[in-house]
Structure to design on (108 residues):
């Protein structure tokens, strides 16, 4: 789990969703982000449509936050990830690979 200062609160999540900026698409996640100096926050939305059982949604969250800690934690800005159905079968290595590809697309 990420520390509290690295997570977005509900208000920040709603603000990102309302802005309707471009969504970067990956194999396992969609990403809505806003670059901000000094601000850092991450959130993941896993819908009931993706995984109906809470156990599976929590497994996805744990893998996701571990991948964030490995690759994206030092980026500045607000990041909202939207899970896709394909993330159900993904491993930690695949999540980390996708985070690295998002990082390269964000910095360009």
């Amino acid at each position: 789990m990420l520390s509290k200062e690295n997570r977005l609160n509900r208000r920040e999540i709603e603000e990102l969703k309302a802005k309707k900026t471009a969504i970067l698409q990956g194999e396992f996640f969609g990403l809505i982000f806003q670059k901000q100096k000094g601000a850092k926050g991450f959130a993941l939305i896993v819908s009931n449509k993706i995984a109906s059982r809470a156990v599976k949604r929590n497994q996805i969250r744990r893998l996701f936050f571990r991948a964030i800690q490995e690759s994206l934690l030092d980026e500045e800005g607000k990041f909202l990830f939207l899970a896709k159905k394909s993330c159900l079968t993904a491993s930690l290595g695949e999540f980390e690979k996708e985070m690295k590809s998002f990082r390269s697309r964000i910095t360009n």
Observations:
- The first helix runs from residue 10 to 19.
- The chain has one domain: 4-107.
- The radius of gyration is 13 Å.
